[in-house]
Write a structure and sequence with these properties.
By secondary structure, the protein is mainly beta. It has helices at residues 2-7, 25-28, 248-261, 281-284, and strands at 16-21, 29-33, 39-41, 46-51, 57-61, 68-75, 84-91, 99-105, 114-120, 129-131, 142-148, 152-157, 160-166, 182-189, 209-223, 262-265. Strands 1, 3, 4, 6, 11, 12, 13 and 15 form an eight-stranded antiparallel beta sheet that branches.
Length: 285
């Protein structure tokens, strides 16, 4: 239990502070590329990205986070989105970066998007799980959330857990816990691999493609330096994510998603891992 107490050493010292943000896009994000293809609209309440044959577009958070609960509503590219990727993720920088990924791989009209998830630690990823969704993610806004604490990472869609990645350091597997990360998002062309391994190309007659974002919130730890977040125990209910885990009901919902909507799991890919599955699969299969 000592490690779980250490988890809560996050919020009230000089090195970092916890903050709940439900703010305007122009206050919390910078548009980083796209030459005008990314726009902040409606007095900061809406952000749109677009992609045409010349360029895509993207943005990043002004703040870096070290653990937190991040929520964002997205409405994805509609119609024939094959070849496009809408990426929404947390990442640090450098060759030994940490990263937590949502990537939405477009498809032909009428065929489902593929929701691709991955976790990187110390530059090593290869922890992919992919899903189809139980709704059309281009028809309306839906909430995509990441809870990241020192024990686990949980991916949610509209409050339903779709993936849990547990800390497996006891098995010699590194875990993202020491590097603060920004939020990034981009809309870009990846028709060399995204749709059926690159077999389906982007139909540029449908361009420009567009994705929309709203209702960002972050209940998260923001380091004031590059050091790890350290603080004293907090019992604030608003910071319950610091020790969040899935209860029995949530575990059943997770199993439902994985049984009915998971289309790829690295921990069952015996062809790829013919010499044996990664050690973290013991906890994360």
């Amino acid at each position: 239990m000592a490690s779980s107490k250490l988890v809560l050493v996050i919020c009230f010292m000089i090195s970092a502070f916890c903050i709940a943000i439900g703010a305007k896009f122009d206050q919390e994000f910078d548009i980083t590329w796209g030459d005008g293809r990314a726009k902040i609209l409606n007095n900061g309440d809406l952000l749109t990205l677009s992609l045409d044959k010349i360029s895509g577009s993207g943005f990043q958070s002004k703040n870096e986070y070290l653990f937190g609960k991040i929520d964002m509503q997205l409405k994805l590219v509609s119609g024939n989105s094959a070849g496009t990727v809408t990426a929404y993720y947390l990442s640090s920088q450098g060759p030994t970066h940490d990263e937590i990924d949502f990537e939405f791989l477009g498809n032909l009209s009428g065929d489902p998007y593929t929701l691709h998830t991955n976790v990187f630690s110390q530059g090593k990823g290869n922890r992919e799980q992919q899903y189809h969704l139980w709704f059309d993610p281009a028809a309306d806004f839906h909430t995509y959330s990441i809870t990241w604490n020192p024990q686990r990472i949980i991916f949610y869609v509209d409050g339903t857990p779709i993936r849990e990645y547990k800390n497996s350091e006891s098995m010699g597997v590194s875990y993202p816990k020491n590097q603060s990360m920004r939020i990034y998002s981009s809309l870009w062309n990846a028709d060399d691999w995204a749709t059926r391994g690159g077999l389906v190309k982007t139909d540029w007659s449908q361009a420009p493609f567009s994705a929309s974002y709203r209702n960002f919130s972050a209940n998260a730890c923001i380091p004031s330096s590059s050091s790890s977040c350290n603080s004293n125990t907090t019992t604030s209910t608003s910071n319950s994510w610091l020790n969040e885990e899935l209860d029995n009901t949530s575990q059943e919902r997770l199993k439902w998603v994985q049984k009915n909507y998971m289309v790829y799991n690295y921990c069952t890919d015996s062809k790829r891992f013919s010499q044996g599955f990664p050690a973290d699969c013991v906890q994360n299969s």
